[in-house]
Amino acid sequence: MDDDALTKVALTCPNMEILDVSSCLSLTEAGIASILEVCNQIRNLQFEKCPLIKHIGEGSELPNVEVVSAVGSVINDEGLAVIGSRCSRLLKLNLDFCERVTTDGIQAMVKTCRSLRGIQLKKCLQVSINSLNSLLLSRGVKWTS
C-alpha cells in the first residue's frame, strides 16, 4: 500500500477505529498524516516495520488513540514527542526493536502521556531501563524489555 491508496481508504472509511499499515514499505509520513487528518476516530494505530515513517505528522489532536504499535519502525524521539502531543489518551505503546528511540525520548513520552499504562521496549538499544525504572513505576506504567 502506498500513500495514494491509503488516502482512498481514508475517504471511503472516515470512521475507522483500527488502522494497521504494518509492513507497508512504500507508505510515507505524509500518507500517515493525511489519513489521520481524515480519520479522527482511530483508537488503534499500528505502523510496524514501516521503514519510511519516523513520526505520524504534526496536526490536530487524536483524542481516541489508545494503542500505538511501531514495532521495528524507524521512529525516533521526535516521533515519540509527536505521538505524545497528539494522543492524550494513549494507554499502550509498543516500541519493540525501535533502535532510534532513546532514554530521553521515553522519559519525555511518559511525562507527557499521563494516561499511559503500558510500554514495550524489547531491543531498544539506546534505552536504559535502569534510568527509567523509577519514573515508570511512579506513573504506574508497566513495561517489558
From TrEMBL:
The lineage of its organism: Eukaryota, Viridiplantae, Streptophyta, Embryophyta, Tracheophyta. This is F-box/LRR-repeat protein 20-like. InterPro entries: F-box_LRR-repeat (IPR050648), Leu-rich_rpt_Cys-con_subtyp (IPR006553), LRR_dom_sf (IPR032675). The gene is LOC107771412. SMART domains: LRR_CC.
